[in-house]
Amino acid sequence: MRIVTWNCNGGFWRKYTHLEQFAADVLVIQECNDPAQSKDNAYRKWAGQNYAWIGHSANKGLGVFSRTDRGLTKLASVQSQRFFLPVRIGEITVCGVWAHKAHDGSLHYCGQTHSYLSPPPDWLSDPLCIFLGDMNSSAIWDRPNRVWNHSASVKILNESGLTSAYHHQHAVLQGAEIHPSFYLHRSGQKPYHIDYIFHGRGWATQHCEIGSPDQWLEHSDHMPVVADLTLT
Predict the structure, then answer these.
(1) In 129-215, at which residue ranges do the beta strands (DSSP E only) sit?
(2) Which one, 36, 171, 182, 222, has the greatest CB density within 10 A?
(3) pTM to 2 decimals?
């Protein structure tokens, strides 16, 4: 199964064709338009009926799109956390993530993910669970004595049986990534790794890659993260 996550930086209705090269089975897209409210017929046709979307604006939300023939069902989620979108696709649980700014510092970026995972949702321990998206956080920003650091969320995911596809593929620790997934202000001088694909024990990482800025910076400040997973 091929999984893709990409923060498209808006205007997904005119960018989705760039992802066709990956022939993905499941796509998690941040800052994307709601297909149901889009005026673009081609985009609505591409999205079809096998997707879920949440957002506070028709032009900027979080979407999970299935390109498989398995049915997609939206699961119950914590309503106070806006942009976490768990769905069932056949026997697979996929949770799309878009962590963002918050007025409450403890719910800002990594704090938001940590709050969502505390306590862990029941489906997180599903061997076929995939938790992925723009977490907007990194171990390089961990602060001493702060319980809701990025690493604290990774610990919860690991204890629930999930592994980062990228870190497994490249044998690096959190915070020591060698391929950025985000370029602040689209600048090559400000690269960070803040987008992730975590998968449960029922999957094995066959391959994981991050798009090249030479190809993708013209479209977004984030690079797509692509993982090929096989059943164990």
Answers:
(1) 129-134, 163-164, 182-183, 191-192, 195-199, 203-210
(2) 222
(3) 0.96
